[in-house]
Design brief:
Strand content: 35-45%
Number of strands: 6
CATH architecture: Roll
Order of helices and strands: HHHEEHEEEE
Helix content: 25-40%
CATH topology: Nuclear Transport Factor 2, Chain: A
Radius of gyration: 23 Å
Number of domains: 1
Low-confidence stretches: 1-28
Distance between the termini: 82 Å
Structural class: alpha+beta
Length: 170
């Protein structure tokens, strides 16, 4: 009986020690991760995406996408690869006259030193010619961001148009 108790105590001690050690390593890795700098890089990436869309600058837009990126827009097949994504976005109609598209990140989560995600809302605001009431259309996005040899880039993006805001279409 004493032998079983001694083996059990030894086993529990070894398991506890290993668990503490791996937890400590995890804490060390997390504390060494500079989430402030990573979030700042992702904010810069978002600003570049906004500028690329505002100016319809395909070269700038391409620099924000990983070579093996995938863009998925609800109701459409996935667009695979940087060049195809830039082409697909470039083929979208321009904003209505006086229209403005803005990106509103709701959550930025750093997952590791090489991965993060951004969840948020895109807003398109415009006024139809001959009308006075502004229309606001929104889409929800989820972006998986990857640190590549070219810097932080969009690896996957899913975009889903939302329903019009009540009263915005009058």
């Amino acid at each position: 009986m004493k032998l079983i108790l001694a083996i059990t105590i030894l086993f529990v001690t070894v398991i506890f020690t290993l668990a503490c050690k791996s937890g400590g390593e995890q804490k060390l890795e997390q504390s060494a991760l500079d989430t402030v700098a990573i979030k700042a890089s992702i904010d810069s990436l978002g600003a570049m995406v906004q500028k690329a869309h505002d100016t319809r600058d395909d070269k700038l837009l391409a620099s924000t996408w990983a070579k093996d990126g995938i863009l998925t827009i609800a109701g459409s097949p996935p667009v695979r690869g940087r060049d195809a994504i830039v082409s697909a976005i470039g083929n979208m109609p321009p904003l209505p006259p006086g229209g403005a598209m803005t990106i509103h990140p709701v959550e930025v989560q750093v997952l590791s030193s090489e991965w993060a995600y951004v969840f948020g809302i895109d807003s398109l605001k415009y006024t139809t010619p001959g009308k006075t009431k502004q229309i606001i259309e929104t889409s929800t996005f989820f972006v998986l961001v990857k640190k590549t040899s070219e810097g932080w880039q969009t690896y996957r993006e899913t975009l889903s148009p939302n329903q019009p805001t009540v009263g915005s279409q009058k």
